[in-house]
Amino acid sequence: MIKKHYEFSVWLRITHWVRALAIVILTATGFYIAFPFIAPAHSGGEPVNFLNALFRSWHIIFGFLLIAVTIGKAYLFIFDKQSKLERNSFWDFINPKIWIQQIGYYLLISKHPHGKGVYNPLQFVAYLGVYISIFMISLTGLILYIHVYHEGLGGLLFDILRPIEVMLGGLAWVRELHHIFMWVFIIFLPVHIYLAVFNSVYGKSGAMDSIISGYRWIKKSKKNKD
Fold first, then answer.
1. Rounded distance between C-alpha atoms, residue 76 and residue 65, angstroms
2. Residue 173: pLDDT band by 50, 70, 90 thresholds?
3. Between 20 and 30 A from 108 (CA), which of 53, 88, 155, 205?
4. 8 A C-beta contact, residue 103 and residue 136
5. Is the whole model's pTM more than 0.85, yes or no?
6. Closest C-alpha among 191, 192, 195, 202 to residue 112
7. What is the Cα–Cα distance from 59 to 194, expressed in whole angstroms?
């Protein structure tokens, strides 16, 4: 028996796609800030487009958007009733049997395990790594921010973040860490997309569709019909 199952709530889907959009734009603008590969137009020897400032402004806007949506996602993970399936993924993560079955599934030698949560162990590890990376890239980004904007929020956070900057080895190391964690996203995204498509096509359960519609299809035995 195949049953339609509501897996992701509206807010979970919104935070997912906003986060994905923010990461893509932050990566593109971050590359430009580090290496301005497009020269702004000049008229009479004076710059008129201020392209670097434009890219920097978009980088800051989507940086704060990423921080905001991540805080919102953390709230949903802890308190949202629909997110219980995500929380249950932890029990699959610590289950060696599920690990073995999941690896066998990706190697096409066994069936997909029936876990308690929405994420399999490999997905859980990947998402945990991504959220650690989001935390670090946000922290290092804020440290870089306070050295450019000294009023308002920058001034408020300056004394709070300066000791952390020193702990991380100084501003040069903060900048390097910011770039390193950006590469975590660059590596993660294609792998994430590949595995999502693999699960959706090979598993034939609408796993990829669920992050758009909220629903996926699950197989249930006749004895569990009721």
1. 16
2. very high
3. 88
4. no
5. no
6. 202
7. 27
Closest CA relative to residue 15, chosen from 77, 61, 58: 77
Task: Spell out the long-range contacts of 106-115 with Cβ–Cβ below 8 A and sequence spacing 24 or more.
Answer: 106/195, 106/198, 112/199, 112/203, 115/88, 115/89, 115/91
Q: How far apart are CA 122 and CA 103, in angstroms?
A: 8
Closest C-alpha to 146, from 132, 169, 173, 164: 164
CA–CA separation, 192 vs 67, rounded Å?
21
Torsion sign, CA atoms 141, 64, 20, 133: positive
What values do phi and psi take at 43, rounded to 5? -135, 110
Confidence of residue 225 (pLDDT cuts 50, 70, 90): very low
112-165 tens-digit pLDDT? 777 777 788 888 888 888 889 999 999 999 999 999 998 899 999 999 999 999
Q: Is the pLDDT assigned to residue 224 strictly greater than 50? A: no
Residue ranges in 107-170 assigned as alpha helix (H): 121-146, 153-167
- What is the rounded distance in angstroms from the CA atom of residue 30 to the CA atom of residue 36? 10
Report the C-alpha gap between 72 and 14 in whole angstroms: 10
